[in-house]
Amino acid sequence: MRPTGRTVLALVLACAAALAACGTSDEDEVRAVAQELRRALEADDGARACGLLTSNAKRQLEGDCARRVLSIDAGDVTADGELTLRDDRASLAARSGGRARAVAFVKTDAGWRLDDLPLSTSVQGSERAAFYERCWREAGARIATRASDLAFAAAAAAPTTVVREDTVSAKGDDWRIFYTFAGTRADPGLREVIADPSIAGAVAYVEQAAARGDVVARARDCAAD
């Protein structure tokens, strides 16, 4: 009997818990988990989807995981996007409805699991700021905590800014600054954030941006277009 696609997927997932016995790579396993998660979401199978989340991702749902996990848009999880692997962490690019996202996975004792929820999921207040901060860190950007971190931008004449739902992206001569709003969900203003990053929910920056286009692109993709 020829194995079905579901049988093959089950074998790949089993390999995640026993790498020594199976020849699949980390990349294969991450993509298999992403595919399984997407199928669970499309089938409205919350319990099955929750089994593919880390405890950190479950905490972000703030309640009944099997019910709240279904707020994730299945279109935000794809198995064939660009994959970045760094030790026991992975970032899988996805694009849905014209919006780019990076979905984070972590390698656990049970195999690879989704660690950060896609931004379309309801994540509130400080947790949302922490979400952006983690994404920006993983993209390779640095996190600003004091004015001296952003001193390079203090004298910039007229940087270009793009305001999204709850984030701002600022472009200078050879730098980028990204920040998300604090609990008020109101933009405190770029100049104010440069003078005091603590007034924003989270602030990230990239210097020598022209030579670090990959970092800029990943950091920009942390927020919906």
Characterise the protein shown here.
The protein has eight helices and nine strands. It is an alpha+beta fold. The protein has two domains: 5-122, Roll (Nuclear Transport Factor 2, Chain: A); 126-220, no CATH class. β7 (167-171) and β8 form a beta hairpin.
Shape field: elongated
Structural class: alpha+beta
Helix content: 25-40%
- Distance between the amino and carboxyl termini: 47 Å
In round numbers, the mean pLDDT is: 80
Percent of sequence in beta strands: 15-25%
Overall strand count: 9
Which key features would you list for this structure?
8 helices, four-stranded antiparallel beta sheet, 2 domains, elongated, five-stranded antiparallel beta sheet, alpha+beta, 225 residues, Nuclear Transport Factor 2, Chain: A
Summarize the structure.
It is built from eight helices and nine strands. With 225 residues, the protein is α+β, with helices and mostly antiparallel strands.
Fold topology:
Layout: H1 5-16, H2 26-42, H3 46-50, H4 55-60, H5 65-68, E1 83-86, E2 89-96, E3 99-108, E4 111-114, H6 125-139, E5 142-143, E6 160-163, E7 167-171, E8 175-180, H7 190-195, E9 202-207, H8 213-220
Antiparallel strand pairs: 1-2, 2-3, 3-4, 5-9, 6-7, 7-8, 8-9
Helix pairs in contact: 1-2, 6-8
